[in-house]
UniProtKB/TrEMBL annotation:
Annotated signal peptide: none
Domain VOC residues, every copy: 5-131
Record protein name field: VOC family protein
Origin superkingdom: Bacteria
Family matches, as PROSITE patterns: VOC
Organism: Pigmentiphaga soli
Length: 140
């Protein structure tokens, strides 16, 4: 286990089997403990928990960022550029419908990053990003 603190995120899903297929299958997140009402996943070293709560997921509002409508409520991970590119290729091959197609935002500016947004089967928005230079993650 890392000496760095880990985050824990619980979120609603409509169907646990779909959540298992998406997070465990497509995204490759190993499953941890579970019950009839929830499933833990190892989300790149952090704990996320899909809680069965039909109809609660998917409400979206957006904020304008770099000419795109970014879902305000979203979560995801910062990957290495190689991991990000591999995930983008995997998602495209799986026919994923992107909210924001994979691209590089803030090109040539402080905080330049590769990003993509898509939904899980319950409508929860996810963002995966990568920085060529990790020192830029919190740069102003």
């Amino acid at each position: 286990m890392s000496s760095m603190p880990l985050f824990h995120l619980a979120f609603p899903v409509d169907d646990l089997a779909q959540a298992r297929a998406f997070y465990g299958g497509l995204l490759g997140c190993p499953e941890g403990r579970s019950s009839d009402a929830w499933v833990d996943f190892d989300f790149y070293g952090h704990q996320i928990v899909a809680h069965l709560s039909p109809g609660e997921a998917g409400a979206r509002s957006a904020s304008a960022v770099d000419g795109h409508d970014v879902p305000v409520r979203h979560f995801g991970a910062i990957l290495s550029m190689a991991q990000w590119e591999a995930l983008a290729d995997k998602l495209r091959a799986a026919g994923t419908e992107f909210i924001i197609e994979p691209y590089v935002r803030f090109k040539g500016e402080v905080g330049e990053q590769a990003t993509m947004f898509f939904l899980d089967p319950s409508g929860n928005a996810l963002e995966f990003k990568a920085f060529g230079d990790l020192s830029q993650v919190f740069a102003k």
